[in-house]
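Worked example

This section walks through a single chain of length 207. The input is the sequence exactly as stored; nothing has been trimmed or padded.
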Amino acid sequence: MKTFKKPLSPEEEKACLARYREGDTEARNMLIEHNLRLVAHVAKKYQAPEHDPDDLISIGIIGLIKAVITFDSEKNSRLATYAARCIENELLMMLRSRRKLAREVSMFEKIGIDQEGRELRLMDVLESEPVDVIEELETQKNIGRLRECMESVLNERELQVISGRYGLCGKKERTQREIAASLGISRSYVSRLEKRALEKLRMELEG
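Given that input, the structure is written out below as tokens.
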């Protein structure tokens, strides 16, 4: 069971914030370390079989770090209140991006061949209501761009991690631990590769 340092008292927190504003990185680290319990508390709300708890904690810590860096004591009463929102926002963004990425690409995954020997994709067999042709073309254009981005901006290792994490390119969706074991690297390194790859894709798509 993980143990976390106790939260700082209001006085200790105020002193650390003052020191951090003066450039004391040790004070910043203290603010992060003594709020890790908050990360675990917020991440627990999003636990599910398909979500690796360590992934949630890692993403939550990113939100906490952002909170410490951007916290303004003149606009917010306590760091914990502000940090909880930042942690939750970071987790929600991650979960939404995963669902969107998996949904967009999976529609074009091969699922077999028809009687004439042509490739069948999921989108070919799903029944759906008539859609706006212009909107459908725009969607296909965006999906095609996403595939191009993955192939152009990600290196081989990043592509392996993203494909495995989100079940793309015919691969089964796996946890960071499973990918780490298959590639012979640490889970923390897989986490860093995943974050870096998603950031590359985001920047390229927003580009």
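What to look for: The chain has a mean pLDDT of 80.
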